[in-house]
Amino acid sequence: xxxxxxxxxxxxxxxLLAQIRWRDGVYCPxxxxxxxxxxxxxxxxxxxxxxxxxxxxxxQTGTVFEHSxxxxxxxxxxxxTYIRFNTRLRRLDxxxxxxxKTIYRRFLRALDxxxxxxxxxxxxxxxxxxxxxxxxxxxxxxxSRGLSTRGRGTYxxxxxxxxxxxxxxxxxxxxxxxxxxxxxTIRLLLADRQQESITVYTDGFRAYDPLEADDAFDRECVVxxxxxxxxxxxxxxxxxxxxxxxxxxxxxxxxxxxxxLTPYLRALQLRREVxxxxxxxxxxxxxxxxx
Length: 291
Hints:
The chain is α/β, with parallel strands linked by helices. It starts with a helix and ends with a helix. It contains 9 helices and 8 strands. The mean pLDDT is about 85. It has helices at about 5-10, 10-20, 70-85, 90-95, 100-105, 185-190, 235-250, 260-270, 280-290; strands at about 35-40, 45-50, 55-60, 120-130, 160-165, 175, 200-205, 215-220. Strands 6-5-4-7-8 form a 5-stranded mixed sheet. Strands 1-2-3 form a 3-stranded antiparallel sheet, with helices on one face.
């Protein structure tokens, strides 16, 4: 269980940060040497002095929390509630007085999504998000709620494709924003594979058709337009299920600007790692990703 004291005690929050930050040992963030001595404290954080470069540092140095005027306990509460419960960033601004811009710049942009490393049978599919320049272009006319025509779109048309890659071998799901759903984009997404030839399951979208002529891929597809959704092992149900989760993840935020969509999708991937973990372990996982 997550103890509430972590969110009300700055010292407890600092101790948790030090535990995660230095889990492999204390080292100088500048020269990376482990030769250091304790050098007093900075607020509630332990301070060190590097014997090699003679510079001082503390538990926050080199992290997204460095030089932040927001208390560390507030950061932990904002991070935990956003990832765990998908709380709107604007709501966090109201409840704990941490602004949207602060959370986005320091936290969301720091999230690093796992790079696709495809090992097993791969499902790939895409869905499209209506995402324009929310809150921008105030000198122009009001934006239309439709944003674009029905069907597939592109980043330039304010309806970018989001690809879902489901690796049946590892169980990993990758959510990747793209400029357009083209053959070159698909090949780039499938490039980081551990085997020279892999089996790829797709739907009947024509952008996947060139894979059939490539010896590096064994493509099997189902054509939804013909009422075909499963043909033996061939289906993209895992992708469609994860796409449904992605839409629900984005829904509470009431529209996300397309140039800020990627960090929100990265947060969704991190969310998959923590739902069944107890509170403190979930927070540790989130912080390890950031640090």
